[in-house]
Amino acid sequence: AAAARHDAAVAASDAARRDSALELLDRADELLAAGTHPAMAADATVARAILCTQWPWTRIEEYRAMLPAVQAAAIALREAAMSVDTPRARREYARASATHAIEAACHIAFGIGEPGHVAAMVEFAAATPALRAVGPSLLVGPPPRLGHLRELEEPYRIAETRFGLPTAD
Predict the structure, then answer these.
(1) How far apart are CA 65 and CA 60, in angstroms?
(2) At 151, is the pLDDT very low, low, confident or very high (cuts 50, 70, 90)?
(3) Which of 25, 37, 78, 117 could cross-link to 98 by cystine, CB 3.0-4.6 Å?
(4) In angstroms, what is the C-alpha Rg of the chain?
(5) 107-126 confidence digits (pLDDT tens)
(6) Can you give the pTM of this predicted structure?
(7) What is the distance between the alpha carbons of residues 152 and 116, in angstroms, rounded to a whole number?
């Protein structure tokens, strides 16, 4: 009984720390998204999702709710990477930020049994020249939009409204 009480106290303490961390990330996300730092807001969204994946009691409903936002963050981070000055800087930025977001989205989608979303993110990564292992990465214009993929329709809408991604029109 004492061990069970101790385990419950540890879990409650962990839950309180997790909730505090999530509140802090949510507040940072709000401030960044409201300002002129959409790429930083996208990074905060990804950081929040990664924190949730580390918590063993995150519910599937929470993962389902966060997946479109993480996919939108990946879209926004890819767009930010493609706006960097030089090809080398684009590759480095894309590998550092966009890849992290794509991996987080794939991890979440795989964990909740959404193979269509995993496939959409793999296609999204493949359509990003700066992320390709081989082939040209000297992107002149923006990478193609993949909003035609059903799984990415909502993330593209979120990226437009929340992270300032230019609209498709």
Answers:
(1) 9
(2) confident
(3) 78
(4) 18
(5) 999 999 999 999 899 888 88
(6) 0.79
(7) 10
Residues 127 and 147: their CA atoms lie apart, in Å, by 12
What tokens were used for 88? 């080398």
Burial class of residue 9 (count of CB atoms within 10 Å of its CB; 0-12, 13-18, 19+): exposed
Residue linked to tokens 């409650």: 12
The least confident of 26-30, 65-69, 151-155 is 26-30
Q: What is the 3-state secondary structure (H, E, C) of the chain?
A: CHHHHHHHHHHHHHHHHHHHHHHHHHHHHHHHHHCCCHHHHHHHHHHHHHHHHHCCCCCHHHHHHHHHHHHHHHHHHHHHHHCCCCHHHHHHHHHHHHHHHHHHHHHHHHHCCCHHHHHHHHHHHHCCHHHCCCCCCCCCCCCCCCCCCHHHHHHHHHHHHHCCCCCCC
Question: Who's near 22: CB < 8 A, 6+ residues apart?
Answer: 48, 51, 52
44 within 8 A of 32, measured Cβ to Cβ:
yes
